[in-house]
Structure formats: C-alpha cells, structure tokens
Amino acid sequence: MASGPARPAEEPPPPEAPAEQKPPPLPPAQEEFSFLPLVHDIIKCMDKDSQDVHQVLNELKNKFQEMRKLISSMPGIGVSPEQQQQQLQNLREQVRTKNELLQKYKSLCMFEIPKE
Questions:
Q1: What's the rounded Cα separation, in Å, for the pair 54 and 28?
Q2: What is the count of structural domains for the chain?
Q3: What segment(s) does the record annotate as region Disordered (predicted)?
Q4: In a domain, 2, yes or no
Q5: If residue 96 lies in a helix (H) or strand (E), which one and from where to where?
Q6: Range of the domain at 34
Q7: How many Å apart are CA 56 and CA 61, to the nearest integer?
Q8: Is the dihedral of CA 73, 76, 81, 83 positive or negative?
Q9: How many CB atoms lie within 10 A of CB 4?
Q10: Cα–Cα distance measured from residue 16 to residue 21, given in angstroms and rounded to the nearest whole number
Q11: Is 9 among the domain residues?
Q12: Is 85 among the domain residues?
C-alpha cells in the first residue's frame, strides 16, 4: 500500500519538473557560453533584412570578449603542457611515496585494534 501513495506522490513532482530545473542553474550558466542562439538570431535577422543585425552582432562580439576574459582568468591557463606533465609526475611520485609510507606504518602493527 505504501507504493500506491508513493506513486501519487511521484505524480506531483512531474509538474514540479521546473523545480527540478531550478537546482541545475548550470544550464543557464551554459547558456552564457553558448553562441548558437545569437548566431541563430543573426541568421533570422538577415533573412528578414532587419536593422537589428548590427545589434545582435554587437551582442555576439561582446559575448566573445567576455569569454576571452573568462578564459584568460582561469587558473593554470598560463601553464604549458610540459609544465602540467611535470606537475602530474611530481604528484604521482608523492602519492607513490605516501602509499609506501602507509604500507610501512601498517606493517609496524602499532595500529592494531585491541580485541575485547
């Protein structure tokens, strides 16, 4: 009987599907990175011989500039692939060393749990 009421409870969430879309504010953020809607608007304006083409082109230009600023401000953007490989090797070496130390400490039997 519990599954019967659970299903009616599931039916209201589909109307709340927009509420489920609220938690992922990432798709709106993805729209910030999407140029296709602006390109589509430009094509529509060109088909209509509209004067709005220049405005939409400026919006696209501004969006490109914003993305360039965002990309240039990303952490590690100035690190070369060779430097990244070196950092990765260093980190892997640290992990290997720490795993070896952990195994040594485990073998000392100092951390045995007393049995009661």
A1: 25
A2: 1
A3: 1-31
A4: no
A5: helix 81-107
A6: 30-74+81-106
A7: 9
A8: positive
A9: 8
A10: 9
A11: no
A12: yes
DSSP code string of 2-69: -HHHHHHHHSSTTTTHHHHHSS--HHHHHHHH--HHHHHHHHHHHHTT-TTHHHHHHHHHHHHHHHHH
- Distance, in Å, from the CA atom of 27 to the CA atom of 15, rounded to the nearest integer, reads 19
Q: Is residue 22 part of a domain?
A: no
Of 38, 85, 89, 82, which is closest to residue 59 (Cα–Cα)? 38
Question: pLDDT tens digits, residue range 23-43?
Answer: 334 444 555 678 888 888 888
**Amino acid (1-letter code) at residue 2:** A
**Most confident listed range (5-9, 14-18, 56-60, 89-93):** 89-93
Closest CA to 21 of 35, 36, 33, 31: 31
Task: Spell out the SS3 assignment of 52-91.
Answer: CHHHHHHHHHHHHHHHHHHHHCCCCCCCCHHHHHHHHHHH
